[in-house]
Specification:
CATH class: Mainly Beta
CATH architecture: Sandwich
CATH topology: Immunoglobulin-like
Largest sheet: 4 strands, antiparallel
Bound molecules: copper (II) ion
Number of helices: 2
Order of helices and strands: HEEEEEEEEH
Radius of gyration: 20 Å
Length: 168
């Protein structure tokens, strides 16, 4: 009986997770400045992401992490309607910089992703803190850990709810 409840919980949790992932009303990223996979000789004053709808000013994050795994974005995220930006300035080593964003769309769903640009000439900027190495493999692995944890948490909650004796 308990196994059945857990199995049902797993299926329901998986359906919820997949359903949330495929809903169509999320904000979507329409452009990035500097453009995705572009090559630039000098760090931009600001990295800007533009979405197809207004973004919630709460909980928006953008980080720019260099090939040295240091944080190169500074200050707070600036949300202005459908545009979200972060200050950058002078960069450091030549190579690929990752723009990681996470915003909340008007329908309350979180939208995140990674874009990149490549610096072609070494800059003289000062990096921020070192960021734990976060290559795309471990990023996608961590997503599945989160999905798995959500499914298990849901199953456990459901199993506990079903075990509770009826009052009448
Ligand atoms: Cu949505």
């Amino acid at each position: 009986m308990r196994f059945k409840a857990v199995a049902l919980g797993l299926l329901t949790g998986a359906a919820l997770v997949l359903g949330a992932g495929s809903a169509s009303a999320h904000a979507s990223l329409t452009s990035v400045d500097p453009a995705d996979q572009s090559e630039i000789a000098q760090g931009p004053d600001e990295v800007q992401l533009t979405f197809n709808e207004a973004i919630s000013p709460n909980f928006a994050t953008i980080t720019v992490v260099g090939p040295d795994n240091n944080l190169w974005s500074t200050g707070d995220v600036l949300v202005d309607g459908s545009t979200v930006g972060i200050k950058v300035g002078d960069l450091g080593p030549v190579g690929e910089y990752k723009i990681a964003y996470r915003v909340t769309s008007a329908d309350g769903h979180v939208v995140d992703g990674i874009r990149t640009f490549t610096l072609t000439q070494e800059g003289s900027g000062t990096p921020g803190k070192s960021v734990v190495a976060d290559d795309s493999d471990s990023a996608s692995t961590s997503v599945w850990w989160i999905v798995g944890a959500a499914v298990v948490a849901f199953a456990v909650a459901l199993a506990v709810a079903l075990r509770r004796p009826k009052k009448d």
